[in-house]
Amino acid sequence: MKFLNGGWLVKDGFDVKYAANVYTANVEEKKLTLFCPFGVPIHHPGQTLDGGILTIEVTSPREDIITTRLINFKKDRSHCPKFALNESDPNVTITEDDDKWSFTSGKLTLEISKGETIDFKYVYDGKVIAHSGWRAKGLVTDLEGRLHVSEQLDLGVSEKIYGLGERFTNFVKNGQTVDIWNEDGGTGTEQAYKNIPFYLSNKGYGLYVDNPGKVSFEIGSEKVSRVQFSVPGEEMSYSVIGGKDLKGILNTYTDLTGKPPLVPDWSYGLWLSTSFTTDYDEKTVMEFVDGMAKRNIPLSVFHFDCRWMKELEWCNFEWDETKFPDPEGLLAKLHERGLKVCVWINSYIGQKSPLFEEGAKKGYFIKTTDGDVWQWDKWQAGMAIVDFTNPEATKWYQDKLKHLVAQGVDCFKTDFGERIPTEGVQYYDGSDPELMHNYYTYLYNKAVYDVLVETKGKDEAILFARSATVGGQQFPVHWGGDCSSNYPSMAESLRAGLSFGMSGFGYWSHDIAGFEDKPTPDLFKRWTQFGLLSSHSRYHGSTEYKVPWLYGDEAVEVSREFTELKLKLKPYLEAMAKETHETGVPMMRAMVLEFPTDPACEDIDTQYMLGDDLLVAPVFSEDGTARFYVPDAGGDHAGEAWANLLTGKTYEPGRWYTEQYDYHTLPVLVRPGSDPLAF
């Protein structure tokens, strides 16, 4: 949220009160509370009248994390949804001298000055990693008279900010305004399906704002030398997270918000979808499955998208009997061929669905403030939305899924979850509707994931989810949403996946060859390479089938070759997933995450590391040209050449390369000293 008019003034209609300095403080065993007047420092008792104070509470939920809570007026927040955080009882020391208070958790220390201006300095292992100084902590009144709490941290020379969820904009977030607000906007805008109020700085810290609502970030876009973040209301909690490097910070952040679990080994294989609005029935499905087998393309999962149910009845959780007269028999046939089965669902119930009347009667849907079922026509005619704050509604929804599992369904694609109303609605448990907008997806995906854990076991549970918020990394896998069939969209999808990985999520996928439109054979083959060198791989589309033979004989060959390559890499991928599960470091990694001390890697968003040892640079051009950078592996293998896994050609580190590739090759370089095929 922007509220300034240049360096000195405030925009017309806005008002800002800044915390001046620390007037007094209370020191408890593990909590430091500061009382900071607005406006100017207090020098005599008369100045304590009529001015107001900002109360600042400093605590630590885990070692190497320091949490600051800024409070104007204390309000009852029992009606507010809260992220589930894994707090421990870290050793905390609080000291005071003539100049400052020092609050230490692990190797992270917050130094708070006693001067005429409020000043916060974060020091990790002796190094200053973040700073908040003059006119940083404020209470902002907007044009509508609504209050916001705002904070600013310095943005240093050469400092770069990453993360904030799966964002399709520039990988480096400097200069951007980012609102943490889940929206269904495709992959071609600043809107995002998966908004996470957490970022990483290459200066050695992470910043997490513990608020499920609309957190607004201005990353050098309001005041160019600062990162500003604000939330509506009268309090805000944020945590600065220290670590020895970016991976260490991610580890600590996911200790707090949840680790990505392991996923079943079959999920790494190729997923094939019916696509979205395409016409299909049992005959079509078996033709696709048999067609893949006939062409020796290994298939692991078959996915039924929306139209396994009747139109206008999404969701009724019943197979359309005109197309699938014997669903149990069909699913058994697929299982006999060694396949797992995924079906599409969402959390919306169309008015024509047989479930609508039952859910409405029992109070299982989000309601209007006058007690009626909230409805609209934007997706399904007269649709309602399941209220997962109601335990009975959650059980009702889960029972429908358990029936599908009993029929033979192995996993679910949890689509949507972003278009959640905020005005004129109420929840069963009284939750604030605005704070529920982003948080809803957590409850939705958790409800579905819990069904699979209960029925299949933890080792077999997996989703294919589109929306996410903090903690959603515990319910994988997520895919990138509605991309278009062109190279710019392929590139924006990769940028988003790399940002997503910098936000605590371990696995990520995308619609191979693009969701919208029909891809060219060229794009189909190039995106197939990229897709099968991602953590999870799925052919999917909107109006077009994505079976390889529709795009030519060479497309079949490319699909077969790269599916076989991925299956050969499965032991390596499983080892990398174990690392992801234990550390929170994603399987698909931005170059800066793996090589944080190499300045050339700080901006790269057209290549990535697949685990520790594979560098992948997808081809984004019709002429087959790829431009890629080879870093120095460091350690015992410093200065050694990398080798292309497919061709054997070697590349000296510390250089950029530009080369052309046919459809059977691309830059897939093996880190010196490793062998991903030997796991």
From TrEMBL:
Which biological processes are named by the entry's GO terms? carbohydrate metabolic process
Family annotation (Gene3D superfamilies): Glycosidases, glycosyl hydrolase (family 31), Golgi alpha-mannosidase II
Ranges for domain Glycosyl hydrolase family 31 C-terminal: 584-674
Residue span, Glycoside hydrolase family 31 N-terminal domain:
55-218
Domain named Glycoside hydrolase family 31 TIM barrel: which ranges?
260-573
What's its EC?
3.2.1.177
| Swiss-Prot/TrEMBL catalytic activity | Hydrolysis of terminal, non-reducing alpha-D-xylose residues with release of alpha-D-xylose
Return one GO MF term: carbohydrate binding
Keyword annotations for this protein? Answer: Glycosidase, Hydrolase
* Family in the record: Belongs to the glycosyl hydrolase 31 family.
Concerning NCBIfam families, the annotation shows: PRK10658.1
Protein name (Swiss-Prot/TrEMBL) = alpha-D-xyloside xylohydrolase
Which organism was this protein described from?
Bifidobacterium imperatoris
